[in-house]
């Protein structure tokens, strides 16, 4: 790539050289160069296969990636077992090329990584989220059977016969200022962090984003390894799916905002049921630890000042939600509410957001449509 034409986009795909069992689950993720060091924690904890897309935002990222991989024999060995996709956009100096390059193609990167995932089941996540210890072995024994068709049915044992997404709850560490706390290694330690006063960890987004994961049920004593949960509008969970049945992510979404929400909405419209798995979780590092310039989305260089006018409703909103709000006002982008939702409604009918794959006894555990209070199912 270093010697290629800077104006010519390139995709380098390196499939994993390893073979895996039928029950193995591939962790699928994507990031730009700024997340390389942070991803090392995931590399140390995840014992299963990985399919990774790396986006080279700037031309200097090519040499940065090469230097990083050659900096440690053990690191290079780890990456040699990964199904790796490296994406070099055009570095042409025109304004149009710059805009296209800095619109981080998040869903395209996910789809590219999914395409070379080496196993029959996948778990798509984001690079900042760290898996809990032993997650892969637990997914093999508990998540995959929830998706696979029961052997006793006498019918073909095809995982496509059960439309189930196995949800992994996501939390964020929230220590007091100028302090650090260790990542929890057991459900008991996670429960302690969540129940502290003030809490030392919380759901990543306790409202629409991850609220349906219901930590009260996640950590409650139970003989069942999972529990049913219902789809809610604007939900964006992480889940295990059967790879050949996995719908692609809508590549019209770039950057942040609607990229995962649209996929969960599609699964619901297709009739998928959702089950949350106990004893596993993702943990996001403290938000303050990520507030450096290098961690900003590439498109932050493109933000139109006219879209960031003073908005009192965003005064106490975190940067992720503020980014989503700004993106929703940008008519040059593919937007979740204005563009995607009407398209799904035309394809699936007016009740496309009703949790059709949810058990009747579960509906009503939470208030649906919380993102738009007082409106049934967020309509």
What features would you highlight for this structure?
9-stranded mixed beta sheet; 4-stranded mixed beta sheet; about 15% strand; alpha/beta; 13 strands
Strand-helix topology:
Elements: E1 10-14, E2 25-32, H1 40-45, E3 50-55, H2 61-69, H3 73-80, E4 83-88, H4 95-102, H5 106-115, E5 121-124, E6 130-131, H6 135-147, E7 164-168, E8 170-173, H7 187-195, E9 201-203, H8 215-218, E10 226-229, E11 238-242, H9 261-269, E12 273-277, E13 282-284, H10 319-329, H11 336-348
Parallel strand pairs: 2-3, 2-5, 3-4, 7-12, 8-13
Antiparallel strand pairs: 1-4, 5-11, 6-13, 7-11, 8-9, 10-12
Helix share bin: 25-40%
Task: Please identify the structural class as seen in this structure.
Answer: alpha/beta
The number of helices is 11
The N- to C-terminal Cα distance equals 48 Å
Mean pLDDT: 84
How are strands sequenced across the largest beta sheet?
1-4-3-2-5-11-7-12-10
Assembly context of the chains: single chain
Tell me the β content. 15-25%
Tell me how many strands there are: 13
Tell me the Rg in angstroms: 21 Å
The major pleated sheet works out as:
9 strands, mixed
């Amino acid at each position: 790539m270093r010697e290629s034409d800077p104006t010519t986009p390139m995709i380098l795909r390196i499939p994993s050289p390893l073979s895996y069992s039928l029950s193995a689950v591939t962790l699928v993720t994507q990031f730009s160069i700024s997340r390389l060091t942070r991803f090392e924690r995931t590399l140390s904890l995840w014992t299963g296969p990985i399919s990774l897309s790396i986006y080279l935002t700037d031309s200097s990222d090519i040499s940065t990636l090469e230097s990083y991989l050659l900096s440690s024999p053990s690191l290079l060995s780890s990456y040699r077992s990964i199904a790796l996709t490296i994406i070099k956009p055009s570095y042409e100096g025109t304004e149009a090329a710059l805009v296209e390059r800095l619109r981080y193609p998040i869903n395209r990167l996910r789809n590219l990584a999914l395409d070379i995932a080496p196993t029959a089941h996948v778990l798509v996540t984001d690079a900042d989220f760290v898996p809990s210890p032993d997650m892969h072995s637990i997914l093999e024994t508990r998540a995959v059977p929830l998706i696979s068709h029961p052997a006793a049915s006498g019918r073909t044992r095809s995982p496509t016969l059960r439309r189930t997404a196995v949800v992994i709850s996501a939390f964020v560490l929230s220590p007091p200022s100028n302090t650090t706390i260790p990542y929890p290694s057991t459900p008991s330690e996670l429960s302690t962090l969540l129940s502290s006063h003030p809490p030392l960890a919380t759901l990543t987004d306790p409202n629409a984003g991850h609220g349906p994961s219901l930590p009260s049920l996640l950590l409650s004593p139970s003989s069942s390894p999972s529990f049913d949960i219902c789809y809610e509008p604007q939900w964006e969970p992480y889940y295990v799916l059967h790879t050949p049945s996995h719908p692609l992510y809508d590549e019209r979404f770039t950057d942040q905002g609607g990229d995962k929400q649209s996929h969960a909405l599609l699964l619901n419209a297709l009739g998928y049921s959702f089950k949350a798995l106990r004893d596993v979780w993702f943990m996001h590092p403290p938000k303050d630890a990520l507030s450096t310039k290098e961690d900003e989305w590439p498109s932050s260089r493109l933000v139109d000042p006219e879209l960031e006018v003073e908005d009192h409703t965003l005064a106490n909103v975190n940067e992720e939600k503020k980014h989503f709000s700004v993106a929703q006002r940008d008519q040059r982008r593919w937007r979740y509410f204005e563009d995607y939702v009407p398209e799904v409604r035309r394809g699936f009918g007016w009740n496309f957001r009703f949790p059709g794959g949810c058990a009747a006894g579960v509906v009503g555990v939470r208030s649906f449509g919380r993102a738009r209070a007082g409106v049934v199912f967020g309509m």
